[in-house]
Design a protein that fits this description.
alpha+beta; Thiol Ester Dehydrase, Chain A; six-stranded antiparallel β-sheet; 2 helices; 6 strands; 37% strand
Length: 163
């Protein structure tokens, strides 16, 4: 087995742009602050009044749409399946289970996002995710995703040798 360099436990916006295919206005993560290969990722999105969805959701009382909170949590989860598994992996959201929005997310909030891998079976990955603002849960749920490499085969996380 060849030794591989351990990945740092954080990702800045430049690495997120290299890792995820999303771009403005659909890149919903600003930074990953904690990351454990194939296990858990924590990140955040700074919610600005300038977000392109606020003028229509809702005029006079801007609230981040719940489906975009799902997307933000799913993007944090996707870093677990893509980073460290080689270039070319593709992650597709297949389903959302037990999703609940508990409080509105508004301009000026920092949306803290955490995703954890629950199970991997073939191309199917199940994640549990939570979104918080000021330490209070604003949304949570589970995701099912398909994760394949460029050849359409199940993606695997490289095992890191201990130093």
């Amino acid at each position: 087995m060849t030794e591989t360099k351990a990945l740092p436990p954080q990702m800045d916006i430049q690495e997120l742009l290299e890792t995820l295919p999303h771009r403005f206005p659909f890149l919903m993560v600003d930074r990953i602050t904690a990351w454990e290969a194939g296990k858990r990722a924590v990140g955040y999105k700074n919610v600005s009044v300038n977000e392109p969805f606020f003028p229509g959701h809702f005029p006079g009382r801007p609230i981040m749409p719940g489906v975009l909170i799902i997307e933000a949590m799913a993007q944090v989860a996707a870093t677990l399946a893509v980073r460290g598994a080689g270039k070319g992996n593709q992650v597709y959201l297949l389903g959302v289970d037990d999703y609940r929005v508990r409080k509105p997310v508004v301009p000026g909030d920092r949306l803290d996002l955490e995703a954890e891998v629950i199970k991997v079976k073939g191309v199917f990955w199940r994640f549990k995710a939570t979104a918080k603002v000021d330490g209070q849960v604003v949304a949570s749920g589970e995701f099912l995703a398909s994760v394949t490499n460029a050849a359409g085969e199940p993606a695997t996380i490289e095992k890191k040798d201990k130093e």
